[in-house]
Write a structure and sequence with these properties.
Layout lengths: L4 E6 L3 H17 L4 E6 L3 H4 L5 H4 L7 H8 L5 E5 L11 E6 L7 E5 L13 E3 L3 H10 L4 E3 L5 H10 L4 E5 H6 L8 E2 L14 E6 L3 H7 L5 H16 L8 E8 L2 E9 L6 E9 L3 H26 L1
Parallel strand pairs: 1-2, 1-3, 6-7, 6-8
Antiparallel strand pairs: 3-10, 4-10, 5-8, 5-9, 11-12, 12-13
Helix pairs in contact: 9-10
Length: 309
């Protein structure tokens, strides 16, 4: 790396490119002498579009090739949606910077603006997320969950082309791409707890790259970073490396962190929820403690069944 250049590794989807370009503009705002280049990398998750994530390896599919480029030093930083980042990172890499979180909630996009509670009996809802599936079926066992893959625009198109009544997407992605008007309802977290890291963008670095660290550190948002330390510690305790039905969301108020967690069975019949609070500076301890508690409640059995399918 030349000392005045940062090469950003990113996926090629419209949302990923929006996020990478946004990070680029933030870096240039901090240091206008910097040269910033985008390097687009096709990941396994982008190449395999016709199989559910759970069947082909889950989260790491959207980060593996980008992390390999980081290790080989063909890029200097990687920009990720934090909900795509596995709890365990490759040796020598670290998520050093997490930017301020956008709306973490899930969004309903339906035909004719129908709300979740008012969807017809047996409504077909598109989602590729086991976390969303378990919570939807817990809320309304009559729903028919239909597999949904592809980038955001592709999934929106499938609402019409595949005869679905509704689809569920992350509100943050829709807002970032200027599609907030497509949202019919922000789903209450009491019905659908958000995914770990949902709405947050992270920057992954090589551990000892002091120049990249110095350039990116001004972009870090302390409250978001602290919240994600708790969420990711919870995920790590559950060994949720795959695409599994785990949810977790931390909020911070008056230096107190509250973490809510959920593990559910794929049929929605079991929906284990728990929460823990404590000083924000103990974020990782709170995450681990909540993981232990939800495992004691029976999450280990649920997750074992999911992994065996």
């Amino acid at each position: 790396m030349e000392n005045d250049t940062i090469r950003i590794g990113t996926r090629g989807s419209p949302l990923a490119l929006w996020q990478a370009n946004w990070i680029k503009s933030c870096l240039l705002n901090v240091n206008d002498d910097l040269a910033v280049e985008l390097v687009t990398i096709k990941t396994s998750g982008d190449k395999i579009q016709d199989v559910s994530l759970a069947k082909i390896g889950g989260k790491g599919l959207f980060t593996k090739e980008i992390e390999e480029a980081l290790i080989k030093q063909t890029i200097d930083i990687a920009v990720h949606s934090m909900k795509d980042v596995p709890a365990k990172l490759p040796r020598g890499l670290n998520i050093s910077v997490i930017t301020e979180r956008e709306d973490p909630r899930d969004a309903l996009i339906s035909k004719n603006g129908v709300k979740l509670a008012d969807l017809p009996e047996g409504a077909k809802i598109g989602t590729g997320s086991l976390r969303r599936q378990t919570q939807l079926l817990n809320y309304r066992p009559d729903f028919k969950i239909m597999p949904l893959r592809g980038n955001l625009e592709t999934r929106l198109d499938k609402l019409e082309s595949e005869g679905l009544d509704a689809i569920i997407l992350a509100a943050a992605g829709l807002k970032r791409l200027g599609m907030a008007d497509r949202i019919c309802e922000h789903i209450d977290p009491d019905i659908m707890l958000p995914g770990i890291g949902q709405g947050a963008v992270g920057i992954e670095l090589r551990l000892f790259d002091t120049f990249a660290m110095m350039m990116t550190m001004p972009l870090d948002h302390e409250l978001t970073h602290t919240a994600l330390l708790a969420e990711r510690a919870f995920l790590l305790k559950l060994e949720g490396g795959c695409q599994v039905p785990i949810a977790g969301h931390a909020t911070i108020a008056d230096e107190t962190l509250t973490l809510k967690g959920m593990v559910g069975s794929l049929d929605g019949k079991q929906n284990l929820r728990a929460e823990k609070s404590g000083p924000a500076q103990e974020a990782e301890r709170i995450g681990k403690a909540l993981g232990k508690e939800i495992l004691r409640m029976g999450a280990d059995k649920i997750l074992k069944e999911v992994y065996e399918q």
